[in-house]
Every structure is written in C-alpha cells, then in structure tokens.
Predict the structure of GNAT family N-acetyltransferase.
Amino acid sequence: MLSFDAAVPEDESFFFELYASTRDEELASWGWGFSEKESFLNMQFEFQRRMFDTQYPDAVTRIVCADRCRVGRVVVADRPDAIYVIDLSLLPQYQNQRIGTTYLQILQSEARVCEKPIRLNVQSANRALRLYQRLGFQVIQEQGVYYRMEWSPLSL
C-alpha cells in the first residue's frame, strides 16, 4: 500500500540518503574516495535544498511510503498557472515498481479537476523520461541537458 505523508524535519537524513542514491551511478565513474564523495554530496544536497526553498517557497514535500517503509519523496508546488513537480525521487530498489506511475496518475487526476497542466524538468538521459512520455508528458523546451515537460488535461 502506498501513502504520501507530510515530511517533517526528522526526515532530513532520509532525504540526504535518497539524494545520494540518485547520484551513485554518476559518482562511481569519478574515481573519488568516500570522503570526497560525502563532501561533494553534502554540498550538492544543501545547494538543492536552498534552490528549492528559494524558487519554490510554496512547495509541499511528501514522503513516499510503500507498506509503511520510506521509499522516496515528492516535492510539488501548486501554483495558479500549473502544478510543478520539483522532485520525484525513489530509492533504487523501489524504482520500476509503478510507484512513480501511481503518484503521477493521482496528480493527473487532481490536475484534471482544477484544469491545470503539470510541469517538470528531467535530464535527457534520465530513465524517468520514458515514464513521463508514457503518461502523456510532452517536451516543451530543451535547456542544455534538461527537458522541460508538460502534461495538459486539455490535450486529452
């Protein structure tokens, strides 16, 4: 059973673990030692947190739980023009189990009711790109190695 629970300050260490897991593959190829990786990850994690707080002060962070076990997080900002998925991250062992699909389908149902598009950014090499395309998201802008994508309830 999936749940999406409000995040609390005590979740911060889990968020760091989750963030680090999303960078494992990339950092493995750099040949760094543990302390170098840890320092880099702490710096990048803090940068991401500050960027989210600055650009999306209205965002809501939820813990993704599967059978009462923390497996990921979602950060979403519901603004007048659109619903923004700022982050959707799952621990590697919980990816490809329809958790992201389920969450996005719930969000699409909510977006239909309020007649708002859903927008997100994804790296062009990220495996999640296929998920977003399968759910009807379209690339609306290319920004370097990132795609800005949008799903619109009006285009269905």
